[in-house]
Design brief:
single chain; alpha/beta; 2 domains; binds pyridoxal-5'-phosphate
Length: about 375
């Protein structure tokens, strides 16, 4: 009855886990959940005010499918100033970040085409490639070298069917960055094999000591790169469902066809909130980032103190991705931690085979809960190791 396409896709492991956690919490259990992929802060008030004003002014109708011009101009300016991208208004379309990745894949992938991406990597790349009848090709990152993505490993997976490379920096779940040198090599590989690069930069504003760098700003990279980013993680706006894509004008025209036949456009009051976010400077981002940094600096040493646990210092995003030498698979460990220690973590295997043996702990949670969470994990492992 259902299409093969939809039957071939598994439900999101992370969403299923959150649902389970919620059920247990509803039963009154004192569960500490660190599975959230969203900031625990409220959307800054000036953004909410701008959206309310837009509603009061009657901005409740369709806009251009590309997005409102003022917002596209502000995005183009931001990409130019922050990421040195050679970007004009015509290079921008406004859409939710997740849809931007979905549509980029739909735009470039024919049945049987192979798409390379990081392993461990974000849970939706594989299913999105499958939905386009492409073949997911997760390529392992190297934990022992600090989660680097070695260009030679990428080269080793190129075939005549390879069509695109997705790179996510800072990365979910590892918090690692893809260095400028690696980016240069990825551009070389893409040029040699005429590949499209899809750069997922949704965590671009959450880079702690180093600088974020956009692959699309490298010489000769812009025309073959689709850069996606958005408001969710930087401005605590996950529920607003707004982000953007920057790409060549030809690509934007193609993606606009998909937008016209699916979403149509994003709500105008949501776009006005997003415009206020970009126009009001970065101080609200800086405040949230500083708090994430403090939590990271507190949490990672606590995790590393636990016998059998080791965690690289994440350079960006808001996840600790730590190794647990317990002999159990991540999924079993997640279940045991949930039911016995009342701590909800995301099993590393949800992010690909290279994530097995690891757990993801979001530090988008209060310092008090993070401290208590680390304590419960330590106590649980101590009992397990007896
Ligand atoms: C790596 C990565 N890319 C894209 C997205 C999608 O972002 P949004 O929820 O803003 O569509 C997420 C969200 O969790 C993510 O972690």
């Amino acid at each position: 009855m259902f299409s093969k396409r939809i039957r071939n896709v598994q439900p999101s492991g992370t969403v299923m886990l959150s649902n389970k956690v919620k059920r247990l919490m509803d039963q009154g259990l004192d569960i500490l959940s660190f599975t959230l992929g969203e900031p625990d802060f409220s959307t800054p008030p000036h953004i909410i005010e701008a959206a309310k004003e837009a509603l009061d002014r009657g901005m409740t109708h369709y806009t251009s499918s590309l997005g409102m011009t003022e917002l596209r101009e502000a995005i183009a300016r931001t990409e130019k100033q922050m990421n040195s991208m050679d970007c004009a208004t015509e290079n921008v379309i406004v859409l939710p970040t997740k849809m931007a990745i979905y549509m980029a894949i739909q735009t470039f992938i024919n049945p049987g085409d192979q798409v390379i991406y990081q392993n461990p990597g974000w849970v939706s790349y594989g299913p999105m490639i499958t939905l386009a009848k492409g073949t997911p090709v997760p390529v392992k990152m190297r934990y022992d070298s600090g989660w680097i993505w070695d260009p030679q490993d990428i080269r080793d997976h190129i075939t005549e069917k390879t069509r695109a490379i997705i790179l996510n920096t800072p990365s979910n779940p590892t918090g690692s960055l893809i260095s400028r040198d690696t980016q240069k090599e990825i551009v070389e590989i893409a040029t040699e094999h005429d590949l499209t690069i899809i750069a997922d930069e949704v965590y671009e504003n959450l880079v702690y000591e180093e600088e974020h760098s956009s692959i699309g700003s490298l010489p000769d990279a812009f025309e073959r790169t689709v850069t996606v980013s958005g408001f969710s993680k930087s401005y605590a706006m996950t529920g607003w469902r707004i982000g953007w894509m920057v790409a060549s004008k030809e690509t934007i025209k193609m993606v606009n066809k998909l937008q016209q036949h699916s979403l149509t456009c994003l709500p105008p009051f949501v776009q006005m909130g997003a415009l206020a976010a970009l126009e009001n400077g970065s101080s609200c981002i800086d405040d949230m980032k500083e708090e994430f940094r403090k939590r990271r600096d507190m949490l990672i040493p606590l995790l590393n103190e636990i016998d059998g646990v080791s965690c690289e210092m994440p350079k960006g995003a808001f996840y600790a991705f730590f190794k647990m030498d317990t002999g159990f698979k991540s999924m079993d460990m997640a279940e045991m931690l949930l039911y016995k220690a009342h701590v909800a973590l995301t099993p590393g295997s949800a992010f690909g085979s290279a994530g097995d043996g690891f757990m993801r702990m979001s530090y988008a949670a209060s310092r008090e809960n993070l401290r208590e969470g680390a304590k419960r994990i330590a106590e649980f492992i101590a009992v397990l190791r007896k």
